[in-house]
Amino acid sequence: MIRHIPQLAIGLATSLLAACGSLVPFAGESFTLQGQLPPNFALKAQAHYGVANGCNGSSRTRSFESEFEHDAHEYRFRIPVNYRDGLCEMRLARVGLFIHGRYGDKDWQRTYDNGGLVLVDALPEGASGFDANGRLSKTAECSWLFQLSKAYSRKGEISKLLTCRNAGAYVVGQELPGKLVRLSFRVEQEERPSRNNTWINTPGGWKPCVPRAGWQRCQEPPVFDKFKMNDQECTVYPNCKE
Q1: What is the torsional sign of CA 148, 152, 157, 162?
Q2: pLDDT, tens digit, for every residue of 90-108?
Q3: Other CB atoms within 10 A of residue 86 CB
Q4: pLDDT above 70 covers what percent of the chain?
């Protein structure tokens, strides 16, 4: 004998199937971020997601990291453009970049600068888009800025700051799935002081100068100071000799 299934049971089963279907991940909705890093550099990409449907959810982040290496090396991250978190549809909002560089073996001899991918509905004027092969290629120019350390425990030693120009791109969010963003990093060979008129560039190299009383700039005429590098007392950077 055929029994009639109650309408309530049918409705419940339909709802469950719909819920299960909503848990199926999106197919192919990711993009690749890759490029070349200089020696002693590492990169962290932090993807930020917001809720794209009416679900009662909160924002999320996912991190992708490369390690320091002594030689130039490639990094490659496959970053979802959207995904499901339970019944919530999460959509990529932006990608923050942390560009890490080290200039010595000590823990304090490393620093970083920021960059990022900004998702937009339309490219700003002058911004490059994806080519016919679905690629967007850029190179960031990084520089080391040296200074006398402001830490009391390292007084007189050289510390450095890192600055990277063009370390990111605008990308149209709707065009991003399946695309390749190639962002490489290059380091300028010449270093420069972190602040103008605190070191004097001489034929032998950069010399730190004693500031005026209550001021950070050099005296006029300049009076030169000494600094420490590799446990040596030096007068000229980077040669550490006259």
Answers
A1: negative
A2: 999 999 999 999 999 999 9
A3: 11
A4: 88
> How far apart (Å, rounded) are the C-alpha atoms in residues 184 and 166?
10
Global confidence as pTM? 0.84
**Phi and psi at residue 21, to the nearest 5°:** -65, -35
- Nearest-angstrom CA–CA distance, 175 and 172: 5
**Model confidence band, residue 17 (pLDDT cutoffs 50, 70, 90):** very low
Q: Which of these ranges, 19-33, 111-125, 161-175, 187-201, has the smallest mean pLDDT?
A: 19-33
The amino acid at 150: K
Q: Are 158 and 108 in contact (CB under 8 A)?
A: no
First to last CA, the chain: 105
CA dihedral 201, 203, 206, 209 (to 10 degrees): -70
Position of tokens 């990308």?
171
Q: What is the CA radius of gyration of the chain?
A: 26
Distance CA 155, CA 227 (A): 9
Contact (Cβ atoms closer than 8 angstroms) between residue 51 and residue 58: yes
